[in-house]
Specification:
homodimer; about 300 residues; mainly alpha; Farnesyl Diphosphate Synthase; two-stranded antiparallel ribbon; 2 strands
């Protein structure tokens, strides 16, 4: 049977959207806070992180991958909060996100700040009280590990520090630009992508050695994702990207194409993809097919 | 032996500040993110919430109240994040907090947004990974309960919704103003004060019936705290308050003095204090002395 990635992604998106919908459905949708959360959470995101998490869970446990759903939803909520705050006028000042008005444009800055805070806070509520939403969920020890890993990846030594560095172009004035750029992206995007894959494996009680391979895969594919994002910002179709073309140049962002050029950036992304795929080769041929296909998609996508 | 509240508070503040210092000390203090977190977290807050938590833990377990410290620190970090975000130009637009420049005034709006996000995220890291900081801590089941209770009190049905309501004066245009105001404050301040007291008790494995009495105490003293805050905003000494006098009037905030007058507000606060003290009378005379003294202090304070 030939693996159909498009079908696989659609099926997973449907599953994730179903549970994110159930989470939001607990609250009165006429409240502005809930409307703002829904506006951003249900804006048609790719659901890349939870899909990676589910694909990772499936490698480690064919029958119990549903156990990864609480972490999937928590991670997507944290990802969405980070986009809402990142888009604020004081940060990247973006008007469009996924082709729709950003949260602060649709509502107000104050509401966007609070909707982000609410999504972040509720991510931990989801993991601590999964039974309200999910039929099955990992035991308390595993869930505490998820709280720990996810709060670490999203926090002071992870995503938030990456966002800080992204706003401080002066760090590029000293030392090796490429090292700075890799470090910034490893923190800003990489840690959350890696923890998505790790959380899927942890949720199903995977073997620690297998988890190490998956972390390796995550680190590489996370960086590749960012390199491709930079390339698409220069070359991509703004309608398909859902944001303005060349916005990185306008915002004077340091990018991979700027430092090493477009061709070397493309080769770098391709090499990372190959290394990522290689790092999970020992985990089996068939079960790793979706994850490998996603890695290939990440590098070859056009939006 | 006569109970000395001032001494008690100072001792607890020292203990809490010690552990908050250890938490911050894990990170490079030259990083702007960490400086911004420290600026707000160590700005000389009253530490009311963690002190309430410790006093509650002491009632339920004389010897193991230190088990409440992880929750104490997490709650104080969440409280501080909420102040940082609340002070932002898009929210209350305050220049001063605890007599110092607000986080966005001292650093930048972007840094303040991220420092708040980091404090909120790290609160859950603290509870999930307490061993890095604390000698003793509750077992995993209890800590998961803490994640659940705290994320609930701080979230969509708690503090964040209270902040939303506080920014929507139009809600006062229909219905009973006093009911709206009580509801807003119960969400904005009350839930976090109650969960502080509840967390202290939960951390030491308190009896559920005792916890109920303490929750009742928390609900009442939380509301009393806000009524007194409103009174002090009209009457207080701005130097001692650390913020501008009458700022509620300038910001057109609906307050208890505005709706029921100063004298009735004072009586309301006093009645709540009496009811709060009464609600924990069954928990013993001596062990409840600190909590009762704090309740009295909350209502009689001048800043």
């Amino acid at each position: 049977m030939i693996f159909n990635l498009e079908h696989y992604i659609k099926e997973k998106q449907k599953l994730i959207n179903k549970y994110l919908g159930i989470i939001l459905h607990q609250f009165d949708k006429k409240r502005e806070l809930v409307m703002a959360m829904e506006h951003s959470l249900m804006a048609g995101g790719k659901r890349l992180r939870p899909i990676l998490s589910l694909a990772s869970a499936e490698i480690c446990s064919e029958n119990f991958s549903m156990l990864a759903l609480p972490a999937c939803c928590a991670i997507e909520m944290i990802h969405t909060y980070s986009l809402i705050h990142d888009d604020l006028p004081a940060m990247d000042n973006d008007d469009l996100r996924r082709g729709l008005p950003t949260c602060h444009k649709q509502f107000s800055e104050a509401t966007a700040i609070l909707a982000g805070d609410a999504l972040l806070t509720h991510a931990f509520q989801i993991i601590s009280q999964p039974k309200i939403v999910f039929e099955t969920y990992p035991d308390v020890e595993v869930r505490m590990q998820l709280v720990s890993k996810i709060s670490q990846a999203a926090g002071i030594m992870g995503m938030i520090e990456g966002q800080m560095l992204d706003m401080q172009p002066q760090i590029f004035e000293s030392g090796d630009c490429l090292t700075h750029l890799k470090n910034m992206h490893s923190l800003k995007t990489g840690k959350m992508i890696t923890v998505s894959i790790e959380s899927g494996a942890i949720s199903v009680g995977a073997d620690p050695a297998d988890i190490e391979h998956l972390i390796d895969f995550g680190d590489k594919i996370g960086l590749a994702f960012q390199v491709v994002d930079d390339i698409l910002n220069v070359e991509g179709d703004p309608d398909r990207m859902g944001k303005s073309k060349g916005s990185d140049i306008l915002n004077k962002k340091i990018t991979f194409p700027l430092i090493i050029g477009i061709d070397a950036s493309r080769k770098f992304a391709k090499d990372l993809m190959d290394e990522a795929i290689e790092s999970i080769s020992s985990l089996g041929e068939q079960s790793t097919t979706p994850l490998k296909a996603i890695a290939t998609y990440i590098v070859n996508r056009d939006h």
